[in-house]
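Hey, quick one: can you model this chain's 3D structure?
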Amino acid sequence: MSAARQPSPTVRDESGVTPEPVRKARAPRARKAAPPHGVRPAPALGGEERARLLEGRHHDPHAVLGARARRGGVAFRVLRPYAKAVTVLGKGLRAELCDEGDGLFSGLLPLSDVPEYRLLVAYDSDEIEVHDPYRFLPALGELDLHLIGEGRHEELWTALGSEPMEHQGVAGTRFTVWAPNAQGVRVTGDFSYWDSVAYPMRSLGSTGVWELFLPGVGEGTMYKYDITRPDGSHTVRADPMARYAEVPPANASVVTASHHTWQDTEWMATRGLRPPHQAPLSVYELHLASWRPGLSYRQLAEQLPAYVKELGFTHVELMPVAEHPFGGSWGYQVTGYFAPTSRMGTPDDFRFLVDALHRAGIGVIVDWVPAHFPRDEWALAEFDGRPLYEHHDPQRAAHPDWGTLEFDYGRKEVRNFLVANAVYWCQEFHVDGLRVDAVASMLYLDYSRAEGEWTPNEHGGRENPDAVALLQEMNATVYRRCPGVMTIAEESTAWEGVTRPTDAGGLGFGLKWNMGWMHDTLRYVSKEPVHRKYHHHDMTFGMVYAYSENYVLPISHDEVVHGKRSLVSKMPGDWWQQRAAHRAYLGFMWAHPGKQLLFMGQEFAQGSEWSETYGPDWWVLDESYPAAGDHRGVRTLVRDLNRAYTSAPALWERDTVPEGFAWVEADAADDNVFAFLRFAQDGSQLLAVSNFSPVVRHGYRLGVPEEVPLWREVLNTDEERYGGSGVRHLQSLRPDPVPAQGRPASLRLTLPPMATVWFRP
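Sure thing. Here's the predicted structure for all 761 residues.
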């Protein structure tokens, strides 16, 4: 429309925004055209305010853009870079605005009130009709801002990030981001062809939150934030609160909303009826991206639940599924804490997988990484130009082991970010547990630091009180808000009270990985049988501290990578002895106090280390492989271990109290033999006997309670179907009135070579 053309009344009532067409970039125009007929010039912006707006330094763009009544009419101002003309449309209204140059268009219309209006934006070869984002009130409430300011918003993801919504009767997306050090923030994305100038956000007071509602922008839109740093330079960042992201190595955030209909009502209602430390808990750990490489979340939902259920595991533990740029980090260097990785599908696809596991009766534990984050320049590091999520002290911020950054646990907003993130996974994805990675690196100021590289706390100690407070708050909040959820600490030191309740001064975790037990027992079985007698205490020492915490016995991914060899390959001897020791070890582990965790591939004794590029060696189970029967035998044993374990309350009801365990034989170092009793709450018993020597021991006498008239063998890792030699007790055994190991009665057993045997009354 030319400037001289007489405007005519027109009503446009289309909804939504058509993305602006691709245009060749050109230098902003500095001309000031004559005003269109019937439109008077709006009061000009001052030079400084104009510069702040165009350079992305304006804290309140809504004060200068949009429409507002003033003396003489209603002033309109629009920022549309590369537009040829902008026309205001309303009921009985069509008025072309004056071109102020630099993409600014304005005019003063003789109206008494601000009308309902839209904008017609013309470009070289196209024109679009849109709502003006700067006519909307803030889409974030005062309560949200108050809770954010207090660091107590337990559903932070509902207030920050991108949220598709209807606002003032118009569909669009609210964008909100925390950037307290920024001079200004602008949202950019495919809706503006990644030109950030047009959409500056407003600062919402002292909270450091910036907000903008963009009408017509919906799900699937990609976006980032253009942040003006304190020094005036710019950085373009992914949204820390994004709930979906592009597939790496691309890193834009994606607007999303959930449409999944959960079908796990029964599971969710019953999962918390029994405390996890008094229930059977057998965990299969896996890396989703490499369990069956190439499968999507929905394809995994077709295969994983059936496999895990057949093997009898009660839970899966997923290595971190939050978005991460480098696959080789296995998910432990997170950039998108609120976004399941898009490598395998959408957030709803991940919900579908969790739902499928629940409907198969399998719980879901997810690894969670609050200890550190990577330094990628488009993510969290110095997010708004200064240390924000990381500690302000560079020495404290730098994680010495992984080249990453540690969170500033003392900052209330950062603590809120992490606590809300833990709640988010439990509420939004129905996960049943969080295994918290690298807790020890959080708890100690001197972790992996030499003298002079760390500063003591205010009491002169090495403990990090801010991290302690964060973990306590996280645990207390998750247990309060999410009934039936468990938290599990990977904590490798002797920190006291990891699984003690927070109101008793503990960290508040439900369970803790028993790293000491894992290291000790693996050291023992890695020795030649003739040398094991010198390391006998490695298998018994764990009972000295077994009841100081609620433990999980982990054979995790960390033990089968980086030259540590797979579990079966740690065992000495020929292939038969390796498999036998592998089976005997699993039998000992499943009977020992504590829950158990086994990493994928170890359930069928794969010989190679795990690699995230190709996953488990499934081919060794193929019938065309000559040794497939050996591997299938071990997998059958794991299935039978889980079934026997689940059906024997003696193995899990009293895991955390001394009354649930008694040694029968703990000192037979020369024989490589261990024997102990487990007790259920009703007094029922299970006898576990392990012989870690490669010889059959005939007539081996072990003391047992005299009140049990008969004992029957219920599991034997030496069975031929598992790949063993078949030395078994086919008949029930009656105790003899012969004292042994301090008990008045005893059994005379034949112990199979390199095997564990379970007996029940």
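One thing worth noting: Residues 1-34 have pLDDT under 50 and may be disordered.
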